[in-house]
Every structure is written in C-alpha cells, then in structure tokens.
Amino acid sequence: MRAWHPAALVGLAALVALPFLVPVYFLHMLIQILLWGFIYTAWSLMGRFGFVSLGHGAFMGIGAYVPALLWNYEGVTPWLSIPLSMLLSALLALVIGYPCFRLKVVGHYFALVTLALGQVVMLTIVAARDITGGSLGMTQKLAGHSWYALQFPEKGYFYGVALVIWLGGLAIWRWLDRGVGREALEAISEDEEAAAAVGIDVMREKLRVTVVSAVLTALGGALYVQYLMYLNPETVSGIGVSLQIVFAAIVGGMYTPLGPTVGALLTIALTEGLRVWFGISFVGAANTIYGILLVLCIIFMPRGILGLFETWRARRARAAAAAAQ
Q1: Which of 4, 51, 142, 293 has the most CB atoms at less than 10 Å from its CB?
Q2: Radius of gyration of the chain (CA)
Q3: 311 belongs to a structural domain
Q4: Domains of the chain: total
C-alpha cells in the first residue's frame, strides 16, 4: 500500500479543521461544494471514458425525492430510504443502459436518450403534484437534531457527513482509475468492435460504470436534499441540473480526481456571485454563463482547469530534464 503524500495529509487536516475556523456562511458553501463535487465526480466516472450522459438529473431526482417522500408520508428513516433510492437508480440505469448498449446506441445518440430520460423523470415529478408538490416543490418534516432522521441544525455535523462522502467518491474514482477495468473502458471508448475482438466484455464494462455512476449520483442527490430540507424539480432534476453537472465536471477537469470538485467550487462561486451582484434582476444568468464557459473550455481547455495545470507542469518537468542533460 502506498503511503499518503504529505501534501494530501496536510490538505485532509485542513479540511477537518475548517468547521472550527470559518464563519457559518462559508461552512454552508463548503458543504455544498463537497456534495456537488461528489455528484460531479460520479458523472465523471462515465464522462472520462466517452460515455456522455445528459440525463444524470434523473438519478439525482430519484435520490432526492424517494427519501423525502418516504420520510414525509411514512416516517421511514433515510438510513433505509436512501439505499432504496440508490437501488431504484441502479435499476433505471440498467433499464436505459442495457438496450442502448445492446443496440450500440453511442455518441450523441446516447446523449440524447439520457437527455430525454432526465426530462421524463422531471415531468413525472411535476405531474404527481398532489404527492410531490409539483413545480412548487416540497419541504421535509423537521425532526430537530436527529441521527434517525439524518437532520442536524448544526452545520458542523453535516459538514462531517459531506466530507466523508466526498472522500469516498475520490476513493471510488481512484479505484476505477487504478483498477484493471480502466484499460478495458479506454479500449471501449476508442473502438468497441476492436475491444470486443480482444475479449473485452463490452456490455458488462459499460453497464458497470453506468450503474456505479447512477448510484453515486442518487446518493449525492439524497444527501443534498437532506441538508437543504427543501426540494423542487428544477433544482434536483431535469435538463438544467444535468447540464450543470456536465459543465462543472468538464470545466474542472474530469480526467483528474479533484477536477469535478474544482468545477463545484467554480459553479457555486459563480452562482453566489451573481446572486449577490444582481439579485433577482438577472435570473437565469448562471445557465447562460455556464454555456459560454463550457464552449470556451472545450475549445481552449479540453481537459479542464486541472488538466491544463497538469499539462503545464509536465511540460516544465520535461524542459527541466532536457536542460539538465
């Protein structure tokens, strides 16, 4: 087992100490960055291998609404309902993924199928307004400080939960990156026919990464709603959320473990900055700016912010090595 890098240990210690050092408002921002960073990391598990999903809002919506509805109407603890929502997301990923992969629906066709999936889930939530509150959303029943209900008025508790989940997402990213399946997925992303010809089970590998990504996205959606205690279709499902996920993961750098978290930091800082500067006079500006930045990033920084930094660092290392010879 490799020892932890000293910089990683220092960074982890700083993250653990942050709740005691920053004001409540910044702690609120940090919790959201960690939760969104986890969700973006879940999407990047697929995106980095060329499986572009524009419908992850569907999995996030299931993860958000199933525990909230079961808690409000039946009093079921999130410790049971969150795993159920993850299971339902896995089943949905199989239902949509199996026929697509069997019929070799790839590229922009696969993206369009997933885009429709996200919209179907959002419209279903809106249509069931007697239960879900429709487009007006719903608020979860309050239980005070309760581990049973997974509700904590003190933000420090939820910061700890978010930090553990975020670290778990990085561990899964690393497991997939260092595992034997990485070469198989890279071969599939290059040429499915050639990958199958050398003995790679294309269907199994694609379904595996799709299900893992969907399950983690549902978990992130569930915890995000447990933190805010309010949800509506526009904030946890549909096209807007799906495109936000894609934008943040690509701009931050989906080929590095911390890239999606950098994307979360950027999107949340942008959203908060626009809210402070323009108030309600520039509603929808964030999505417009997301689109512009995404186009610019794909053109000038296809590997994202951290990818650009790593490329620059590698060039400097090569230049230093050449100068030393």
Answers
A1: 51
A2: 20
A3: no
A4: 1
